[in-house]
């Protein structure tokens, strides 16, 4: 996987992006950071397939000033169909969960968390049931 998510304080995304881009280049991991203002996170995307894993493995987290948390992520899911969002999520998880062994649903930023607290338990339950049944949403 070539992407790393870094949580930071909302408003410090540009600083976090500059820091991870610099530290990654020193490790010969080249890529770019995606920044969304006041989101509380940055996505660093390396050009090589395993850049995310290499970065998390070789960069001491304690060397980062602006990041609160750092983890490798797979492909970003976009434009999920409103009638069935679970099937694409479960499909992406198959073959990946064995590597991590844990499914975690998180939200960056406190304001987003308040609304997400209502929805995420339902999504988490549906995804775990779908994964257990081979990824078919019609069996949820």
Automatic annotation (TrEMBL):
<dbReference type="Pfam" id="PF18125">
    <property type="entry name" value="RlmM_FDX"/>
</dbReference>
<dbReference type="InterPro" id="IPR040739">
    <property type="entry name" value="RlmM_FDX"/>
</dbReference>
<protein>
    <submittedName>
        <fullName>RNA 2'-O-ribose methyltransferase mtfA</fullName>
        <ecNumber>2.1.1.186</ecNumber>
    </submittedName>
</protein>
<keyword id="KW-0808">Transferase</keyword>
<keyword id="KW-0489">Methyltransferase</keyword>
<feature type="domain" description="RlmM ferredoxin-like">
    <location>
        <begin position="1"/>
        <end position="71"/>
    </location>
</feature>
<dbReference type="GO" id="GO:0008168">
    <property type="term" value="F:methyltransferase activity"/>
</dbReference>
<dbReference type="GO" id="GO:0032259">
    <property type="term" value="P:methylation"/>
</dbReference>
């Amino acid at each position: 996987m070539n992407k790393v998510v870094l949580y930071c304080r909302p408003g410090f995304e540009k600083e976090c992006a500059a820091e991870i881009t610099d530290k990654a280049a020193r490790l010969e991991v080249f890529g770019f950071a995606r920044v969304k203002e006041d989101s509380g996170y940055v996505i660093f995307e390396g050009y090589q397939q395993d850049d995310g894993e290499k970065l998390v493995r070789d960069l001491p987290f304690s060397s980062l000033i602006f990041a609160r948390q750092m983890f490798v992520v797979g492909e970003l899911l976009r434009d999920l169909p409103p009638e069935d969002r679970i099937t694409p999520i479960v499909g992406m998880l198959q073959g990946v969960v064995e590597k991590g062994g844990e499914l975690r649903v998180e939200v960056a930023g406190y304001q987003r968390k308040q609304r997400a607290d209502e929805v995420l338990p339902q999504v988490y339950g549906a995804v775990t049931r779908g994964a257990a049944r081979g990824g078919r949403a019609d069996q949820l």
